Sequence to fold (425 residues):
Amino acid sequence: MTMSIPDPYALGRGGLAALLDDQPRYRAEQVHRWLVRGVDDPTEMTDLPRSLRARLMELLPPPPVLLRHTSADGGLTRKVLLGFPASHGLDPLRSGLEIAPRSLQAGVESRADAVEIESVLMCYPARQDRAGRATVCVSTQAGCAMGCPFCATGQAGLRGQLSVGQVVRQVTVMQRLLSQGAVDVPGVPDHVTNVVFMGMGEPLANLDVTIAAVRWLHDPDGFDLSARSITVSTVGLVPGIRRLGELGLPITLAVSLHAPDDELRDDLVPVNRQHPLAELLAAARQYSDRSGRRLTFEYVLIDGINAGVDQARRLASRLRGFGAHVNLIPMNATPAVPWRAPPVPVQLAFLAALTDAGVTATIRHNRGGAIDAACGQLYADYAMASGRTLPAAVGAAERLSTQGSTRLVMAPTQGSAGPAMAPPS
Ligand code: SAH
Ligand code: SF4
Fold:
């Protein structure tokens, strides 16, 4: 058993006050103020007495270690591999799996020692018509249980839930890189301006943690990000969408669709069998009505599978009247399937079919492909090291193959090597 050390980001104001109950009240408030500014190393909390800093060093978990830092796109995209010491542990599988369908929990792994997490920073320098942006793409789970066959994270299966501190620290580490001038390109902000929950895992399958992290990031005393600059991307867990809507915060919701009908979506996004398109679209519309935010739909374009003009037309007829924006994401290569993005003319034809039908759409310019940091590529090392795929992914491959597609042949799984993390280098 790993000894549990309180994570200050999970404690909140009340928990901090209890931890420091022998101190004057304002001390807990001082610590809180540092935390919301992204400082969790007690040695840097300079307005605390030295003795209290020393005590906090013993009480709080050590900060994560930057194990690897790679860059692409002329330095504008950064991927970091963070190592969280064993005392952070992985949260045992809990809250999220209460709303993740049981059938998708197969292949779940849990280990309570050191945790490694990948997250990505994407910088967009200021232009005449646009302010500069620095967007962090955060992970909410180590792996994912949802088994979407095209996604490296899904191919790897789920090892566990991340904690609030592990999510928030992905942002604080990037904040530090920016403030130290690590991205030395004119027009790039020196602080994080946007956070997207699009890294490893399904944010709404770790809902309490996602909500708590959003609150930290939104706190006006701290990161002070507007809810509008926070995007939560979901595979379509309807109960989670409803709860997010109840928060009453105008967070941008991005819903991953990937298919115009249930038949194909059942295979590409296995959770569709629990929450089919009609139910999902109704929940998304309700979220949009409540929050006043325009929805985003994501659609990964996979050659020969979901990228035909006819499929675009059927998608458009389902989405007409939503006033939503569709993000088309040419598929990034992942280890367990030979699927690829369609050629550019096919992508453009799909885009044109949507816009001709009155649906606003753009093709997302992919960042970080050279360092496996693009959408769906996180945890690729883990997937290859483990050599295993989720039963759900294998099932989808077999079904689509027997339906006549010759494009989908799953890479054979290599025995039962068990999960292994990407080695630090
Ligand atoms: N689990 C959430 C958020 C993380 S994935 C979700 O599925 O929405 C973020 C986005 O990357 C999703 O839209 C997902 O479908 C997309 N994605 C996954 N694998 C991909 C791949 N191989 N190429 C391109 N996009 C991918
Ligand atoms: Fe999980 Fe999202 Fe990947 Fe699907 S696409 S396996 S939900 S991370």
